[in-house]
Amino acid sequence: MSGGAGHLYDMMKRLRSNNGLLNKTRRQRVKDAYTHVSLKMNLTFKTASKEDLKLIREKVIKERKKTEIRTIISVLLTIITIPIIIYISIKILNAFLT
């Protein structure tokens, strides 16, 4: 680096780090504001019984199996159709060129 480029790089690096410090304080102020408001609001959370948790778990497992099957089917269809499309396009190009 010549012509003072090292000094410019150092200046840019220091500016970035100083801005990073400012952003952290802003984030902390926002976080403190939200926690201050949430402490005033007396939030209550619902609790689920063991039977409800079992039903929810079974439902989530079924949905996950369905999405896994859908992704497998879509991957297989993609694997099958891409070579077919390539083969057809090559045949069309060969017929068009000859």
Descriptive account of the structure:
This protein has 98 residues and is mainly α. It has two domains: 1-45; 46-98. 86% of the residues lie in helices and 0% in strands. It starts with a helix and ends with a helix.
Kindly list the characteristics that best describe this protein.
98 residues, 0% strand, flat
Strand content: under 5%
Order of helices and strands: HH
Low-confidence stretches: none
Helix share of residues?
Answer: over 70%
Give the CA-based shape.
Answer: flat
**What structural class results from the helix and strand content?**
mainly alpha
Largest sheet: none
Number of helices: 2
Count of discrete domains: 2
What is the mean pLDDT? 84
Distance between the termini: 58 Å
Q: Using the CA coordinates, give the radius of gyration.
A: 30 Å
Number of strands: 0
Please provide a brief summary of the model.
The protein is built from two helices and no strands. It is mostly helical. 0% of the residues are buried.
Please give the structural blueprint:
Blueprint (H helix, E strand, L loop, with lengths): L4 H36 L9 H48 L1
